[in-house]
Give the backbone structure.
Amino acid sequence: MENEKKVTFHSKVVEDKDWFGVAKSEVSYQKYDGTMCEPAEHIYMIGREGVSVVLHDVAADVFLLIEEFRIGSAEKEGWLTGVVTGGLEEGEEPILAAVRECEEEAAVKCTAMDHLLTYYPEPGFSTHVMHAFVGRFEHNLVKDEVNGLDEEGEDIKPILVTREKLLDMLSSGEIINGTAKIALSHYLLHGVNRD
């Protein structure tokens, strides 16, 4: 940020914080003209950090997507195609969460894991932060079986696709999971920065 702006929380109440909580705060912030705005009430979600992983077998140029039930889309879609995603456990580093989630959701042990980007998926109403990674794997080791943790109610199907099929799925709107679209599109457009 070019000029650091001030933000003042005049009050903050958080309800039921586990994976997500709801906060109601009275906030004022420094405007572009340098003055502080009047305090205003904001209601937003407090979320823990999450990870997403684009799984790519570089040698074969094959990607591993997953299909699973997603509660947020249940009234319209229910099952969405996406990438491995999950939340960080208390004190867990994002890269370790990415490795763990690949094993839990796709039964894949990655040969390498690279950071792709970190972003706020919905900053207008949530503090949730996502860390996207690219995991290298061997597609011939993927088993055509359902994965996930029973205790989390997961029932996840792996889907192997070529780059051409993936591009078609993204452009046709077959993939409507925003987390997946952001990570996949960023990777396909920019690759991984290994500086």
